[in-house]
Amino acid sequence: MVTLSLSRLVSFSLFIRVCLVxxxxxxxxxxxxxxxxxxxxxxxxxxxxxxxxxxxxQRLTYRYTPLLxxxxxxxxxxxxxxKLLFTAGDLVIGYLLYKILSSSGxxxxxxxxxxxxxxxxxxxxxxxxxxxxxxxxxxxxLFALYAVKQNRPVSAGVAxxxxxxLKIYPIIYSLPLYLYLAYCVPGxxxxxxxRTIRFVASFVAVQAVFLSTFYYLYxxxxxxxxxxxxxxxxDTRHNFSPYFYLLYLTKxxxxxxxxxxxxxLCFLPQAALSSLFAIKQYANLELCLTLQTxxxxxxxxxxxxxxxxxxxxxxxxxxxxxNLSLVxxxxxxxxxxxxxxxxxxxGFLVEFECANYFLLMHFASLFFLLSQSWIVCxxxxxxxxxxxKKMD
Length: 392
Hints:
68% of the residues lie in helices and 0% in strands. It is mostly helical. The longest helix has 26 residues, at 256-281.
């Protein structure tokens, strides 16, 4: 049997991504239909503002942490720097997947396969090389998971805090990571112990530093654009969410409180499922985080293609632990692509053909929701059961 080394896998993945970055630069200079994601220009403009001593929020639609604009300062000199940085994030994700699987005692070939499921995934390669920053989030999320599995609560707290600073949603991981540290690592098992205290303390300390520093520099704009905006955001187009049609219909409703009520109710399924999976599956941490993420994306008010990466970098961790036949696995992947393809077809008719197919798009969103629900149920049924220790 031929054994593929991690270094060769990473090198090949790097080669593919660098070629895509170069292709994007050439394509964009000759075509009106750009390969580069529109958000990448937003990142670059914000970095330019920071470089000149101004606020990144002077760039309209920049709704991210100022940290991202700081990291992309070289973009003002080398336009593709950010894409290369995000590509490096992709490679680190592949490395962390290998390390997490290896630390769980899996064979080398199994670990390589898990890593390859991410590194050779055309979706992940395409998103990063188009200039989307999600890979940086994936790095800190997976490092937090790895640190918890290695019984390093301070490192886990720091990584999770950074993840929450980059995006709000990783806060859902705090409960299962906490419970795992409390009951599933060697040492004294209790809800409050030295491990959990260090985990929480490091999380709060890092969060306090980021919040106080950027609030001092940029004031309320930082709080609103980085955090509050995402709580009230609605997007009635480019949106796989099952709520999109309801939000579209009520966007201009005469009763102003109606949309606000709907926005609030949208959080309830996310909160309920995230809490349920955290309590029931925390001992099987990889499965727990995956189920939380899939359900969060399924029921989010806004769900776009880049959000799928949030669980695509977790799914390879389940590869060795699922009792799935090849036919069953292919059927799950096929249903996922079918649901997405149906929505994209109706979305194309609405966006480019100006056809009034909003109701059809709504049914496509519901079908995609059902397909993802079936996948979640299949993952639960096919996973190996890990019995958690009894809580004190």
